[in-house]
DNA sequence: ATCAGGGATGTTTTCAAAGTCATGTGAGTA
DNA sequence: TACTCACATGACTTTGAAAACATCCCTGAT
């Protein structure tokens, strides 16, 4: 469904959100350990998220990553997916056709549209804030 | 969403269905040309479909692939996906966790369940017969 | 100004999916 | 029986995402 990068990105963003809510700035090592991801690879993903203004990075001693509390509710899952995997999951044809449209639909075009719209709706309506709250409350988990 | 193999498998099955409806048995070359897929790779996919009883193969001169008319309505998209990609798309966790369940859900578990159920419903309710009919009627296309 | 902590960036390496090639096997035909 | 057509099978190669490695650069503290 999503690329590995995107999966890590979602996990990392949620973890950073949880920590930011408690006023903590977190470093790469922390994040990689907490979401069980390869450190070097995670670094790249965090840089990408940082470029896309989804998270903030601070260099130097006591540096790390954080998310502004004021922005947390604004950040939706869809933004992370878009930043990591592009819009292929929203626009791409179910059978991989480059040109698949209402005018010239592939055999599963209409059927997939329904599912994709449901997916899009879900991603656009799910905020990182909500996900981080569930995690803080112990309703969900970031391991296993 | 699906592997390349699965995309080809769906396209191939639909094409074979269309031809079978007109009483034609089709060969590998025909299929590969029609769905614009690499021939050798397509051969493997057809063999897999054949093993899973989704299509029938006939060896020798005037051999080829076909689908029994009587079975065509019974074959659903879900069977092809299952044969090619396994059940990961139905069961797999949105964040890639090996153990993700109601008991120990990942942060997006519930949200994904809705989307996945919609996908499953769609795949289980879409028959190859219906898709082949749309193609025959010129409502859908297998190229581009 | 220097030093160390920690993020940023470019280059390899690894591995599974995608795709190719060579050869085997069964079926129809003469 | 011999030949040929077309599917079957397994080993091999290629490609690109995932992951690892090495190095650079910015920042705060002393």
List keywords for this structure.
homodimer, 144 residues, mainly alpha, Arc Repressor Mutant, subunit A, two-stranded antiparallel ribbon, 8 helices, 56% helix, 4% strand, DNA-binding
Strand order of the largest sheet of chain A: 1-2
**What is the structural class of chain A?**
mainly alpha
Largest interface: pair, residues per side: A-B, 39 and 39 residues
Q: Briefly, what CATH class of the domain at 4-85 and 127-136 in chain A?
A: Mainly Alpha
What's the CATH architecture name of the domain at 4-85 and 127-136 in chain A? Orthogonal Bundle
The helix content of chain A, as a percent range, equals: 55-70%
- How big is the Rg of chain A? 17 Å
SSE order of chain A, as H and E? HHHEEHHHHH
* Number of DSSP E strands of chain A: 2
Shape by Cα distribution of chain A = elongated
CATH topology-level name of the domain at 4-85 and 127-136 in chain A: Arc Repressor Mutant, subunit A
Distance between the termini of chain A: 18 Å
> Mean pLDDT of chain A, as a whole number?
96
CATH-defined superfamily of the domain at 4-85 and 127-136 in chain A: Winged helix-like DNA-binding domain superfamily/Winged helix DNA-binding domain
Task: Name the poorly predicted regions of chain A.
Answer: none
């Amino acid at each position: 469904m999503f690329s590995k990068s995107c999966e890590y990105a979602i996990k990392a963003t949620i973890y950073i959100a949880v920590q930011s809510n408690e006023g903590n700035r977190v470093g790469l090592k922390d994040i990689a350990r907490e979401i069980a991801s390869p450190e070097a690879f995670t670094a790249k993903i965090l840089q990408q998220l940082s470029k896309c203004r989804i998270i903030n990075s601070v260099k130097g001693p006591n540096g790390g990553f954080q998310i502004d509390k004021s922005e947390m509710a604004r950040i939706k899952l869809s933004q992370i997916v878009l930043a990591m995997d592009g819009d292929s999951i929203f626009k791409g044809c179910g059978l991989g056709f480059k040109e698949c449209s209402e005018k010239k639909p592939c055999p599963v075009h209409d059927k997939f549209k329904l599912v994709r719209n449901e997916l899009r709706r879900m991603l656009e309506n799910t905020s990182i804030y909500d996900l981080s709250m569930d995690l803080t409350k112990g309703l969900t988990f970031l391991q296993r």
